[in-house]
């Protein structure tokens, strides 16, 4: 156990001497995919609640497909499936993009979390109290201004508890990155296990690292909830 830690602690945390690995790569995958997914999901959630089927329909289809198929299958389709197509290999830009395991992993993770986050935010938008919208209109706000200043901020605050669960689940989903040869925490644990045959110790360290990151994320979201959802807390008389 001690020898394994001495030999692999750097790789578990940030580098194997040549490349960024371990916790650093896992956090990179999480932050980039969740960040891009969040930015994409906000406008998509607005489209999702639209009464125009030509607007909401494509978004519904997108979320249905990505929520209805396993993330592992999506990753394999992007990493090996698309690259097997001649049209992708013949196009220089597509060939360079889909040849990279990191690019394919980020694309799969981003679209997957975007689909789930879109539905979370769409539900929060639908649950916005009508009185808040009426108050905005009473002040003379246009529909777009009311959406931007009242509906979306209010929905994002109320969606925090559900969104925090999605981020934690996305952290756990990053364990699939090793499929595309991305050197995340699990990939390092597998390498350590192959070299030392100390399976319990190698994967136990990985479990502790994921647990520590999860606790840190939960603490951050709880603090955010106390700050932005304080107005929903019961008032003491």
Automatic annotation (TrEMBL):
InterPro entries: AA_ABC_Transporter_Permease, AA_ABC_transptr_permease_3TM, MetI-like, MetI-like_sf. Belongs to the binding-protein-dependent transport system permease family. HisMQ subfamily. NCBIfam families: HEQRo_perm_3TM, PRK15069.1. The chain crosses the membrane at residues 20-47, 59-79, 167-186, 198-221. One of its GO terms (cellular component) is ATP-binding cassette (ABC) transporter complex. It is a multi-pass membrane protein. The HisPMQJ complex is composed of two ATP-binding proteins (HisP), two transmembrane proteins (HisM and HisQ) and a solute-binding protein (HisJ). The HisPMQ-ArgT complex is composed of two ATP-binding proteins (HisP), two transmembrane proteins (HisM and HisQ) and a solute-binding protein (ArgT). SUPFAM superfamilies: MetI-like (SSF161098). Keywords: Cell inner membrane, Cell membrane, Membrane, Transmembrane, Transmembrane helix, Transport. Gene3D superfamilies: MetI-like. Residues 23-221 form the ABC transmembrane type-1 domain. It is found in: Cell inner membrane; Cell membrane. This is Histidine/lysine/arginine/ornithine transport system permease protein HisM. GO terms for biological process: amino acid transport. GO terms for molecular function: transmembrane transporter activity.
